[in-house]
Amino acid sequence: MLQNTNKSAGLQSAGPADGGIARTDAVPLLISVRSIAEAKNACQFPLAIIDFKNPKAGALGRCSDAVLQRVASLKPTGLGFSAACGELRELQSHRLALPAGIRFAKAGPAGLCSASQIRDAMLRFRASLPDATTSVAVAYADHAEADCTPVETIAELAIQTEHRWLLIDTATKDGRRLLDWLTPQQLTDVIAMGRQHGIGTVLAGSLALQDVDSLRSLGADLLGIRGAVCSGGRDSQIDPDKIAAWCQAMASAEAPIDR
User: Fold this and answer.
1) Does residue 20 surpass a pLDDT of 70?
2) Most buried of the four, 96, 107, 141, 225, by CB within 10 Å?
3) Are 188 and 218 in contact (CB under 8 A)?
4) Cα 124 off chain centre by
């Protein structure tokens, strides 16, 4: 196994030594924002993670440096802030400029067709991050559309490279949702495999409010959303009323996420 570093340590507020998730009072939601103004709205809620992403630049489009540099002015909630950094194939091997306050970073595997390509790119990405930033492995449920390897393969790579978090998302944003690409059993199996190795899982990909109970019953640690809390699609402004509705639904779901 590769040597573990702080860049692959668990996403935790105060942590078990094995890198697992600590119990927090935060709602187990990751909500993506595109601006400081949206982030301030999101900070009004006890969210696990507030994620910075440019939805017009793809599934994991990076926000501008002007936005990211102002993250330090915000008071983090839950486990902190994360940033989408684009696709692994687009990134250079030099150090990635991320400001203080970005605790987690992720980049997608689109266009990388072999496990060895993705493994090497994951390691380069992790090495490029600031020491205080944790790398999150990413798998696309619609892997054929994204021209990359299946979720199960990337979950195995996350184990091999000693990541502590795996995001399962969709690369295409055309209205099809996570469960249109993967069955509940497939997701349950991947989540369980990761858990055996101390990996937490985030489920994302055009999730809908009515799916909260079924998604939480799969055992994932967090759900990630943007379009579901926007006023008119993922490119529009987030709506605080919709965030509140999700927080309420998560609190009342039959099978709470708890590790």
Assistant:
1) no
2) 107
3) yes
4) 19
